[in-house]
Amino acid sequence: MLNIVLFGPPGAGKGTHSIKLVEKYELVHFSTGEILRGEIAAKTELGIQAKAVMDKGELVPDKLVVEMMRKKISQYRNSKGMVFDGFPRTTAQAEALDKLLLDNEIGIDAMIMLDVEREELIKRLKKRAETSGRTDDADMSIIENRIDVYNKQTLPIVEYYQKQNKYKKVDGIGSIEDIFGRIEEVIKNL
Ligand code: ADP
User: Fold this and answer.
1) Is the CB of residue 10 below 6 angstroms from any atom belonging to ligand 1?
2) Residue 25, CA distances (Å) to 19, 41, 88, 90, 173 in order
3) Rounded to an integer, what distance in angstroms lies between the CA atom of residue 151 and that of residue 156?
4) Which of 18, 96, 119, 121: disulfide with 85, CB 3.0–4.6 Å?
5) Cis-peptide into 88, omega within 30 deg
6) Cβ distance 19 to 179 under 8 Å?
7) Cβ pair 137, 125 in contact under 8 A
């Protein structure tokens, strides 16, 4: 099994490279952002609660996200592997993910960070706003808030994976093929 956390700030390319990982290694893709947007579209109780925070660029409470992932992970425990995109986003979520995986007698192989600087992220997210239809991409102050939330609440997770020797940093600037080549290299050396 190959279980990867694809990590990085908003606009780093997690979604793009998750899709490529799924194709190459036949993994199951879990994007908590996409799952939450599905809940919003279906107007579920979770979706209604999530929308208010997501529209501001804040994080959905850990408890809700972890419960949502619990069901998914047990459902795919016998797959070839999983790529986690946008999860975990807090150290509490990283701890909860390890517990959820352990309950299924599996674990994370690597946390791969796509390293992209702030200016480039803002440029990419502004461009994405033209086509994504996402309310959180449409407003400059929300984009900036998401990057700040990432730096304050999400970046500390690096230390959590460093302690487990699972943290791998990849340069997230360049062509999609070049960046994916760097990711493949990390996986080959696991
Ligand atoms: P991006 O990486 O561009 O921010 P995502 O689709 O991953 O896009 O996330 C969009 C929004 O969904 C986040 O700003 C946050 O409000 C919410 N969200 C997604 N994943 C999580 C998570 N693991 N924990 C809390 N909130 C989340």
Assistant:
1) yes
2) 10, 30, 21, 27, 23
3) 8
4) 18
5) yes
6) no
7) yes
Ligand 1 pocket, 32 CB below 6 A? yes
Give residue 111 CA to ligand 1 midpoint distance, Å. Answer: 17
Burial class (CB in 10 A: 0-12, 13-18, 19+), 95: middle
Q: Write b or e for each residue in 20-29: b if 16 or more Cβ atoms lie within 10 A of its Cβ, otherwise e.
A: bbbeeeebbb
Which residues of the chain register pLDDT less than 50? Answer: none
Q: Measured between alpha carbons, how far is 166 from 29 in angstroms, rounded to an integer? A: 19
SS3 content of the chain, % helix, strand, coil (to 5): 60, 15, 25
Ligand 1 mean position, distance from CA 117 (Å): 19
